[in-house]
Amino acid sequence: MTGKTHISCGFLIGTLAVNYYHPDIFTSITTVVLAVAGSMLPDICHTQSKIGRRFKLLSIIVRILFGHRTFTHSLLFTLLMALLLKTIHTPEVYFTAFIGGMASHIILDMLTPRGVKLLYPLPLSVKLPIQFKTGGMVDLSLATAFTFGGTYVIFREVINQWLNQFITLPF
Length: 171
Ligand SMILES: [Zn+2]
What we know:
Blueprint: H1 3-21, H2 25-40, H3 50-54, H4 56-66, H5 75-87, H6 92-109, H7 137-167
Helix pairs in contact: 1-2, 1-6, 1-7, 2-6, 5-6
């Protein structure tokens, strides 16, 4: 999947987390940012990806050590990140957004013919029964659908909060 699809899916996951936990506005924005960051993180192994270009050196090191779509697209890496976030006492809403974003990335890549090394260090390529070409029509449609979905969830959340305020007015 393209970076756009991963980011838009992270955006949707972030808005859903906001919709579930109803945090304040600052926490809401941070939650969406963290979900998007989580959805980009696995591609740190790819020097030409959005996150790879930003953290070039780290990206090259990861690439040399593990190769593309291996360790950073595995259950092991997700588990290690989850443990790290728990160790530094990350609030639940941030934890859910970040790990949710990461999981969405791995699942989306499992929808491509190449699959991912989900069970790394086992050298097994895992993919879902249906696959789509990266950058193809389905990829683009997914990105659009996720963006619309996320925008809708935010819109509903804002309207709800506005209505709540209105209803609790003392008259
Ligand atoms: Zn990937």
